[in-house]
C-alpha cells in the first residue's frame, strides 16, 4: 500500500475518528494536538439519522455514546418575567443521541491510543510538500516527514491556513457571536440520560440560556466581526458582559456567576466555504473543511467525513491522487445540506417582531416540517461499506 505514514492535526472529534479508520486499514498514524491533554467536559454535541448512526456502529462506539449521553433537554423560551412564550424540543436540539464533546473525544481516544501515536502540547508551524512526501515542522518537536497530512483542527485550522491560504478567504462571519460557559453538571451525567428542561430569554439580537443543552450557560448576540485576541479571555468576558448588561430576566445573576466559571469560550458564528477540501498530499476533514457553527451538522459531518476519507484511501490502496478527488466529490455533495443555515437569525432575531414571529413558528406545522426535512437531509449520502475491504 502507498502513503502509509500519515499525520493528523487535531484530537477533538474529526481527528481521532479519522485516526481510527486509517489505523484499521493499516496506516501508520500520528496525531498532533496543541492542547496539553484531552479537553474534558465542554459543550454537548449530537448525532442524528441513519447514516451517522451507521458510521458510529461500524466504529463500535455507538453503545458507549448511548451509555454516556446527556439525555434530551427541552428549551422553554420565557419573557422578562419568566412567563413561557415558546418551546424548542430537545429532540430537535439534541438529535438522536447527545454527548459532551470531551466524553466523545475520550471514547475515540481510547479506541485509537493503542494503535496510533498521540503528541499533545505541540502544533504544526510549516508544511512543505515534495514529490514524495510532506516535510512538517512543529512548534516544539523536531521536523518530520509524512506521506500524507490531514487537517482536522477546527474552524480556525492551522493546516488550512498553511496550505490553502489565510482564514479570511474561507471563513465567513454570519453576523453573530456565541459563548458557552460551563459543562453540564456532573450530577446530571451520573444520573444517566433523562428528559430535562432549560430556559432561555431573548432581547432583540440577543439570547441567554441557562442550564441548556450545549453548556450550563450559553449566549448569542448579533454583532459585526469583533476585534479581540482569541487567547485574551479577559477581553472576551468584558465584551459579553457589555453586550448583555441591559438584558433582564435572570441575566444579571448569570453574569455574576460567569465571573467564577472556569470554562469559557467565545467565538463568531461562521461558515467555512471552500472550492475543494484537498490539495496535493493534504486533505481537510470536519470543521476545518465544512464547518458551520451551531447549525446542527458539524459533528455528524466530522465522523462521516473521516469515514469516507479513510475508506477512499483504503479502496485506492493508499493512492491519494485517486482517493482525495473521490472524497472531495462525496463530501461536497453531502455537506451542501447545511446550505446557508444561520442559527443566529433563528435563535436571536434582531427585532421584537422577529422574536414574536419565531415564537409563533416554533408552534406551527411549518417547524415540524422543517425538522423532518433536516433529519432526512442528514441521510442523503450513498454510504459505502468500506470496512468490507478488511475481509478481502
Automatic annotation (TrEMBL):
Q: Which residues form the FAD-binding domain?
A: 4-316
Q: Which Gene Ontology molecular-function terms are recorded? A: FAD binding
Q: Which InterPro entries match?
A: FAD-bd (IPR002938), FAD/NAD-bd_sf (IPR036188), FAD_aromatic-hydroxylase (IPR051704)
* Pfam families referenced in this protein's UniProt entry, alphabetically: FAD_binding_3
Against Gene3D superfamilies, the record matches this protein to: D-Amino Acid Oxidase, subunit A, domain 2, FAD/NAD(P)-binding domain
Write the protein's name: FAD-dependent oxidoreductase
Amino acid at each position: 500500500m502507498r502513503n502509509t505514514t500519515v499525520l493528523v492535526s487535531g484530537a477533538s472529534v474529526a481527528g481521532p475518528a479519522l485516526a481510527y479508520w486509517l489505523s484499521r486499514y493499516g496506516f501508520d498514524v500520528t496525531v498532533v494536538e496543541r492542547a496539553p491533554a484531552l479537553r474534558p467536559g465542554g459543550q454537548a454535541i449530537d448525532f442524528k439519522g441513519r447514516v451517522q448512526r451507521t458510521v458510529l456502529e461500524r466504529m463500535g462506539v455507538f453503545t458507549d455514546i448511548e451509555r454516556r449521553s446527556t439525555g434530551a433537554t427541552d428549551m422553554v423560551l420565557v419573557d422578562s418575567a419568566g412567563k413561557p412564550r415558546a418551546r424548542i424540543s430537545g429532540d430537535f436540539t439534541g438529535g438522536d443521541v447527545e454527548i459532551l464533546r470531551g466524553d466523545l473525544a475520550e471514547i475515540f481516544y481510547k479506541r485509537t491510543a493503542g494503535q496510533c501515536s498521540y503528541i499533545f502540547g505541540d502544533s504544526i508551524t510549516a508544511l512543505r510538500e515534495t514529490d514524495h512526501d510532506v516535510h512538517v515542522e512543529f512548534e516544539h518537536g523536531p521536523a518530520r516527514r509524512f506521506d500524507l497530512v490531514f487537517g482536522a483542527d477546527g474552524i480556525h485550522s492551522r493546516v488550512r491556513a498553511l496550505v490553502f491560504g489565510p482564514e479570511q478567504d474561507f471563513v465567513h462571519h454570519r453576523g453573530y457571536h456565541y459563548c458557552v460557559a460551563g459543562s453540564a453538571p456532573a450530577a446530571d451525567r451520573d444520573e444517566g440520560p433523562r428528559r430535562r428542561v432549560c430556559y432561555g430569554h431573548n432581547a432583540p439580537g440577543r439570547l441567554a440560556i441557562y442550564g441548556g443543552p450545549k453548556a450550563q450557560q450559553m449566549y448569542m448576540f448579533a454583532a459585526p466581526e469583533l476585534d479581540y485576541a482569541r487567547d485574551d479571555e479577559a477581553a472576551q468576558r468584558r465584551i459579553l458582559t457589555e453586550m448583555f448588561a441591559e438584558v433582564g430576566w435572570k441575566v444579571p445573576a448569570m453574569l455574576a456567576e460567569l465571573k467564577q466559571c472556569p470554562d469559557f469560550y467565545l467565538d463568531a458564528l461562521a461558515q467555512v466555504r471552500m472550492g475543494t477540501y484537498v490539495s496535493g498530499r493534504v486533505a481537510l476533514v470536519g470543521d476545518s473543511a465544512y464547518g458551520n457553527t451551531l447549525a446542527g451538522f458539524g459533528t455528524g459531518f466530522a465522523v462521516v467525513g473521516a469515514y469516507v476519507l479513510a475508506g477512499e484511501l483504503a479502496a485506492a490502496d493508499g493512492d491519494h491522487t485517486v482517493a482525495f478527488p473521490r472524497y472531495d466529490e462525496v463530501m461536497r455533495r453531502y455537506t451542501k445540506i447545511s446550505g446557508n443555515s444561520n442559527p443566529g437569525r433563528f435563535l436571536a432575531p434582531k427585532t421584537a417582531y422577529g422574536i414574536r414571529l419565531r415564537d409563533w413558528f416554533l408552534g406551527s406545522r411549518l417547524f415540524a416540517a422543517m425538522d423532518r426535512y433536516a433529519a432526512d437531509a442528514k441521510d442523503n449520502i450513498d454510504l459505502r461499506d468500506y470496512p468490507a475491504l478488511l475481509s478481502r
